[in-house]
Prior knowledge:
- This protein is an all-alpha fold.
- The protein contains 11 helices and no strands.
Amino acid sequence: MNKALAEFIGTFTLVFLGCGSAVIAGAGVVGVLGISFAFGLALIAMAYGIGPVSGCHINPAVSLGALLAGRMNSGDFIQYVIAQCLGAIAGAAVLYMIASGKLAGFDVGKQGLGQNGWGPTYLGGYGMGAAFIFEVVATFLFVVAILGSTGPGAPSAMAGLAIGLTLVAIHIVGIQITGTSVNPARSLGPALFAGGAALSQLWLFIVAPLIGAAAAGIVFKSGALDPQA
């Protein structure tokens, strides 16, 4: 249960701080760049805070990649995913409660809760195809960075920093496309409270990241990216 609690806390933190930077701070944190760093810094903090306990996956896609790469068992995978989803929902719930306390009023339907999406009315106005491709490719690269930086021979002390900065870079590119998910749990939490388009489009932010992560896990399992002797 230590691992499950760690994953719950880690995913809660990622959603609360990452999505919170968009909902509460917004333009006050220099827009895309500030939000990108909020997600990345939250991940770095949790990598060192809970990494020794659970490995700090805080993302069902990362756990799937680790499972297919042979780095975790199916029992732990199920436990991790449940804890991650519950943590994301809890993080979004607390964020919603705080945002709703704004005296001038808060309309989640209009102002959102940092949910992911696509379409003509969503941020950069990209279509479903572009959104799907981005989420698959970005998740593949993210999981490659994670599995590579935590693998045998890698400088493990630097893994958290490398992974967090990779997430920053992915957000810088992807926020205008989909709001950047690469994490089904991160998408699930805000969508449950935002409803509407966020819920109807949630499937993409489950399917696409899992495809990208599965591809990365299979590549590592094959040994194609093993360090040369």
